[in-house]
């Protein structure tokens, strides 16, 4: 489970918002500190006061995006019913919201994913984030389906995360041809059906 909370000042958030816009405009490889300063309407020395290097700023941006997504999930949890279906629905609804209303978060995430091939720190943060994602889904399954086979408890969260993340890539490549409502409803039902199959197998 996630144990640490990221704290940023108002100025840092202003810089990170600007960095997010720059990454979406020119990708990570094209991002420069002076572009972020211009987007934030600040002098570059002020940006360097909070983030000494581009690498340090990108680390902060990735952590901030992951934290924003986690916070969205926690807000949804508080207003959702405590059933298997409703608790799993949170993950699919959140991803759909990101893709339809906050695309800049998801597009930046894809750009960060590309960097995992060459940046061990970025890769490590993704590994941790995915592990938290899978653990959260697994905890729901264990709570509502405690007798499920251990292999199914382990693999279904991997399946769910793959379905969620796969949507980001398809929207990036062909946003106009992607029906988010239909896709996420279908993906959610696939996971629930797999849970039902796993439970029937165990009971049989």
From TrEMBL:
DNA-binding annotation, residue ranges on this chain: 32-51
Domain of life where this protein originates: Bacteria
UniProt keyword Protein biosynthesis, yes or no: no
One function term, GO molecular function aspect: DNA binding
PROSITE patterns: HTH_TETR_2
Keywords for the protein's UniProt record, in alphabetical order: DNA-binding, Repressor, Transcription, Transcription regulation
Every HTH tetR-type domain range: 9-69
Pfam families from the UniProt entry: TetR_C_6, TetR_N
Listed name of the protein: TetR family transcriptional regulator
Species annotation: Eubacterium ramulus
């Amino acid at each position: 489970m996630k144990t640490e909370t990221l704290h940023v000042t108002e100025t840092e958030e202003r810089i990170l918002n600007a960095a997010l816009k720059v990454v979406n405009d020119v990708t990570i490889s094209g991002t420069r500190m002076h572009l972020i300063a211009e987007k934030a309407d600040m002098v570059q020395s002020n940006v360097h006061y909070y983030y000494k290097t581009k690498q340090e700023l990108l680390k902060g941006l990735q952590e901030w995006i992951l934290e924003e997504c986690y916070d969205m999930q926690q807000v949804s949890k508080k207003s959702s019913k405590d059933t298997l279906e409703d608790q799993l629905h949170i993950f699919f609804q959140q991803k759909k919201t990101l893709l339809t209303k906050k695309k800049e978060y998801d597009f930046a995430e894809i750009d960060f994913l590309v960097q995992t091939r060459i940046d061990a720190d970025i890769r490590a943060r993704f590994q941790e984030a995915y592990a938290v994602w899978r653990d959260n889904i697994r905890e729901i399954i264990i709570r509502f389906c405690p007798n499920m086979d251990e292999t199914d408890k382990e693999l279904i969260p991997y399946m769910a995360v793959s379905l969620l993340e796969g949507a980001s890539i398809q929207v990036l490549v062909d946003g106009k041809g992607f029906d988010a409502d239909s896709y996420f409803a279908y993906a959610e039902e696939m996971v629930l059906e797999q849970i039902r199959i796993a439970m029937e197998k165990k009971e049989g």
